[in-house]
Design brief:
Number of helices: 6
Helix content: under 10%
Distance between the termini: 35 Å
Radius of gyration: 21 Å
Shape: globular
Strand order of the largest sheet: 3-2-1-33
Number of strands: 33
Strand content: 35-45%
């Protein structure tokens, strides 16, 4: 039987999946270094949240044009509304990525979009037209509740066996519970939990797996019913926030050990391994004490941690506490494994570290993009040079409200995208002006030779100017994969 050839328009599918139509290989790239040679990003996706903003209507997925040659550069070119009000979209992931590169039957054509508050999961079709995605399927909260006794889905990764795994942070009653929900990668039916029933952990949040070392590391945020109230010291003191990471056997799904990071490791959020699949080390950013721990495999085959970065808190007046932490809320590693980046949501800076020596990261770049320490704000830093408080950042007449939160790096490592919203309840607590005026998406130029960060003054996507009112945009995702979604095996 002759093969049928279907001609698709160039803008209907991401560039990196064009070869998939010819069944040459699966999605993504054969290695992280090959991924760095991939095409420049032309569009990005961001979930836009209306919950707790006073703006009526459902959350939506925004498609933003990031092609500097385009007439709609730095503008939202498509909005896909969800089917319900109050979901609180948060993070996203793929049905297939570079872990499926050797499977020519796989395509990266579905974006998995969980709702952190409602526990609803949207499956988004980006393969038909990547510039105008559409809803493919909706997984209702009851499926997670009844089949897995889980709720509040967070991080999504595709697995090499074709399944999709999503971490969850709670149970249906709002209590803390770390779990991992498996979806069928073709039908997107909820199958079961990944972990053994006897190996549940007290908190959940993010995770990363490294198959060549037969390991997965998971992290902790807090109890959903505490998070939803905003950050309160009484909840911290009551043990409703985590301070440990968990080491899992990847093939047996058994919990090997939990590592208590102590006070310096309170609220360990994003975890990243080096991208080299042979690497046996990674990093986790801990929000409340603004520290970064290195995670590594010891000579005897066990896993351990060392604190390698500590951002000192600032002594302040005019704030909710006498000391303000930097609050590291996102970290990532360049595909070449040379640079580590993270955002300090409260202090307002993004930092770049050279991790050529992972035991001794070296600060090589820093830029301020908003935050709570601005010179014209109510918060004053004491016992330090007054010049340590930066001027407000204004781009094309728009003042940046909020602080640097979610970050995403281009494949070649030369552009860092930054959004400013964390979670609508916490946004209302710490950055009320951002909730009223809308969040923004920024682009930072990166010096990949010597290190260094500089704000691109020609790029800002202002979500305060959306047609139906200001919204809060969160995580950035590229159609062709990126350094926080793709894992090599």
């Amino acid at each position: 039987m002759a093969k049928r050839h279907v001609r698709l328009q160039r803008d209907q599918i991401p560039r990196e999946t064009m070869k998939d139509e010819c069944h040459i290989h699966g999605p993504g790239y054969p290695s992280p270094l090959e991924a760095m040679k991939g095409p420049r990003e032309e569009i990005v996706y961001l979930p836009c949240i209306r919950r707790n903003t006073g703006t009526e209507g459902p959350d939506y997925l925004a498609t933003v044009d990031v092609d500097p040659k385009s007439r709609t550069y730095s503008q939202v070119i498509h909005r896909l509304p969800m089917l319900h009000v109050g979901d609180e979209l948060h993070h996203s992931g793929w049905n297939a990525c570079s872990s499926c590169y050797t499977d020519a039957c796989k395509k990266r054509d579905k974006l998995i979009l969980p709702s952190l508050y409602s526990s609803r999961i949207y499956i988004i079709d980006v393969g038909h037209n990547c510039r105008a995605p559409r809803i493919h399927k909706v997984i209702e909260p009851s499926e997670l509740h009844e089949k897995c006794d889980s709720a509040n889905p967070h991080t999504t990764h595709c697995l090499a066996n074709g399944e999709v795994m999503i971490s969850t942070i709670g149970d249906p009653r709002g209590n803390a519970k770390g779990s991992f929900v498996l979806l069928n990668g073709e039908t997107f039916e909820v199958k079961s939990t990944w972990e053994n029933k006897s190996d549940s952990v007290p908190f959940g949040y993010d995770y990363w797996y490294q198959p060549r070392h037969n390991v997965m590391i998971s992290t902790e945020w807090g109890a959903p019913k505490a998070i939803e109230k905003g950050f309160r010291l009484t909840d911290l003191e009551a043990g409703m926030y985590g301070h440990s990471i968990h080491v899992w056997n990847w093939t047996s799904h058994k919990l090997i050990k939990s590592i208590d990071l102590g006070d310096d490791g309170l609220i360990p959020l994003e975890v990243r391994f080096l991208h080299n699949p042979d690497a046996s080390q990674g990093f986790v950013g801990c929000a409340l004490r603004s520290s970064v721990f290195r995670i590594y495999k010891t000579e005897d085959g066990t896993w351990a941690t060392d604190k390698v970065i500590q951002i000192p808190s600032k002594k302040v007046t005019g704030w909710m506490m006498e000391e303000m932490p930097g609050l590291i809320t996102d970290i990532l590693i360049s595909l070449c494994d040379r640079f580590l980046y993270f955002s300090n949501w409260l202090h307002g800076d993004i930092r770049q570290y050279d991790i050529s020596d992972p035991c001794n990261p070296k600060l090589v770049g820093q830029v301020f993009v908003g935050g709570s320490l601005l010179k014209d704000g109510n918060v004053k830093v004491v016992d330090e040079d007054p010049n340590c408080q930066p001027e407000p950042l204004v781009i094309k007449g728009t003042r940046v409200e909020g602080g640097p939160q979610m970050i995403q790096l281009s494949l070649d490592g030369k552009r860092l995208y930054c959004s400013t919203s964390l979670y609508s309840t916490w946004d209302n607590q710490f950055y009320t002006c951002m909730v009223k005026k809308g969040s923004v998406l920024l682009q930072i130029d990166v010096d990949t030779k010597n290190g260094g960060l500089k704000v691109n003054k020609n790029f800002i996507c202002d979500f305060g100017k959306e047609p139906n009112g200001p919204v809060l945009a969160h995580e950035v995702r590229y159609p062709g994969g990126d350094c926080t979604s793709d894992i090599w095996i």
